[in-house]
Amino acid sequence: MRKKSDLPTKTCAACGRPMVWRKKWARVWDEVRYCSERCGRMKRPANSDRARAPDGRGV
C-alpha cells in the first residue's frame, strides 16, 4: 500500500491548488489539467491582459 505523500501531484491550471493522483485518473493522468469539473469550466485565460479591453473593462 502506498502513502498519500508518495503519489504523484500536479497543480490545477485554473485555481493553482495542488492535486494528488486518484485511481479514477489512472489511465488519463497525463491529460488531467483541472482538479474538478468546476475548475474545468472556469478555464482561466493564459494571458489575463488579453481578457480585458484597453479601457480596463471586460471583453
Provide a brief overview of the structure:
This protein has 59 residues and is largely without helices or strands. The chain has one helix and two strands.
Describe this structure in words.
Helix content is 10%, strand content 10%. It contains 1 helix and 2 strands. A hairpin with a 6-residue loop joins strand 1 and strand 2. A two-stranded antiparallel ribbon has the order 1-2. It has one helix spanning 37-42, and strands at 9-11, 18-20. By secondary structure, it is low in regular secondary structure. 2% of the residues are buried.
Count helical runs. Answer: 1
As residue ranges, the low-confidence spans are none
Main β-sheet, spatial strand arrangement: 1-2
Order of helices and strands: EEH
**Considering DSSP H and I runs of 4 or more, what fraction of the residues is helical?**
10-25%
Q: Tell me the structural class.
A: little secondary structure
Q: In what range is the share of β-strand residues? A: 5-15%
Number of strands: 2
Rg calc: 16 Å
Largest sheet: 2 strands, antiparallel
Q: What's the mean pLDDT score?
A: 80
- Separation of the first and last Cα atoms: 50 Å
Morphology: elongated
